[in-house]
Write the structure tokens for this entry.
Amino acid sequence: MQLDIRLPIGLMFALLGALLTVFGFLADKGVYQKSLGINVNAWWGLVMLIFGVIMFLLGRRGTATARLTEESPEGKKIEEIEHRSGLER
Amino acid sequence: MKLTYLDWSIMLVYFVFVLGIGLALKRYMKTSTDFFLSGRSIPAWITGLAFISANLGAQEVIGMGASGAKYGIMTSHFYWIGAIPAMAFVGIFMMPFYYGSRARSVPEYLKLRFDEKTRGLNAISFAVMTVFSSGISLYAMGLLLETLLGWDFSFSILLAAAIVLIYVFLGGLTSAIYNEVLQFFLIVFGFAPLVFLGLKDAGGWTGLQTRLATVATAHGFGAGAWSESWHYMGSSSANPMGVEWFGLAMGLGFVLSFGYWCTDFLVVQRAMAAKSMSAARRTPLIAAVPKMFFPFLVILPGMIAIALTYKSGATGFALPKKIDGTFNYDLAIPMMLGHYFPTGMLGVGLTALMASFMSGMAGNVTAFNTVWTYDIYQSYIKRGASDEHYLWMGRMATIFGIGISVAAAYVATRFNNIMDMLQLVFAFVNAPLFATFLLGMFWKRTTGHGAFIGLLSGTIAAAIHHGLTLPVGAVAGVKGGWFGATHVYPSEMAQNFWTAIFAWTACFVITIVVSLLTRPRDEKDLVGLVYSLTERPKAEDVPWYQRPTVLAVIVLLAAIVLNIIFW
């Protein structure tokens, strides 16, 4: 089992998105004068949340992982070639 | 700019994830190949995003925003001419040699193709350059956070350095690449709403165009000089950059861009970590797709900033000025973040900004520790040690590389000129490089002596050209002209482009001449290293839309379309 990069990305964006969304819908709306009256926290937070969840789900079933050198056929071949050509020294 | 607990929590979440990735990857770092090359096991989309993210350092985000304000949409030449073609070239033509030769670094390719001295020259100059570049970007970050948030200079650079140190130390290149991907998305999500809000404030694209016309006429140029990328390139006096199309196409589009994207180990290392030849070749091509849309993320805000400064929008944004009364262009993007983003989104934007500094720095650090360990330590200091020893050395190199960067950042606070000088010298060293690689890969007659002497002559030619010319309005010194100015360029950028053209040409010609005078290498030693002696990589068993050539054609066509739209 290796770390799929989409899991941490998904988790982080889901977390940040949720944080922004909740804050955007619940907290004081006065701060949005700056952003031309648009509640960017709520809307963009929602986008980030959705992105995060999708990434996380893709990561759960996907295979975009880094593997140990000796576990992948390419890695084995490379190590062998490196060994033969003396690059390892 | 005032931050609330919400902004602080967002930053904290990011830091926790960055460090967490390093920690999670620690147990997979078993051999030096794992640490320096990610075991060559990473899928193309990840290496592709890391490929541009490593380049997405301070100079990209802050510098391109600044140039957007200063020169307008012409800045996009740095992408649509100055990056995409070179990225397609490295993927299609050069990656087969980098990846196929099993070299572990760019200098090591030079060793395989040419000889030890050419590798030594390249490795040492590259190692010095990377640590200082990362120092310069640390310095820029410390200064920015001080101006923006009132953070203590030492606090911000030590914090950033410590975080990068921990995650690279633990997880090596994989950790750097994973974090670069995370940073890529953070930058996209942090800046996209800024562009939306800014553009809305400026009255959409048409509103922006009319405002930019005011900017252009106020500077004495034609009305479209800030919003049309090619229209004013006919002569150097008609556009704010002060370059004409030929200098731009040759200097930036050919010499500088190919020199950077095709030979700089900082980016090439990402592709070398890919899991197969076809993934390595796809890496720069996948990277080219987001790269060509980055102007909308980093240049457009700068253009919006200057447009609103000249013709105020609803919220009254204006660029701050320096003490001497000129605009502080470098603050274009940071000030816009503070102006348009409410607390919450502001935290995301600032975190994205910090992420860009850190990804640039991590890129430099991983390139440095690899070149140091494989090309300097293993080649000249301690040969034949165990793999564990080199893995340990890589970790040590990470520590002292970052140590030197921090020291360099402090030196920069005291002697700004030293950093300018260093960057100048780096430019001299870098300019001729692509000629060496081009000849080495595509002309089997090129010899080691030719490459070495060619490289040196190119660097010297750059220095001489710089010493003989000056940009208009500058005094002799670090800007050039220290031999006495015989030619005056309309701008510093024009001078840079032509310095590069001279360096490249000198290197190209001298390498050929010396190669013809020296004994060529046996052809059987060059198999896998030179185009004419290497079997073409087969299209492998990937579907058509993943074939490198198909991708390259799509990417190049898209770049042409973008050029035409914003002509």
User: Anything to note?
Assistant: Chain B has a mean pLDDT of 88. The CA atoms of residues 156 and 462 of chain B lie 36 Å apart.
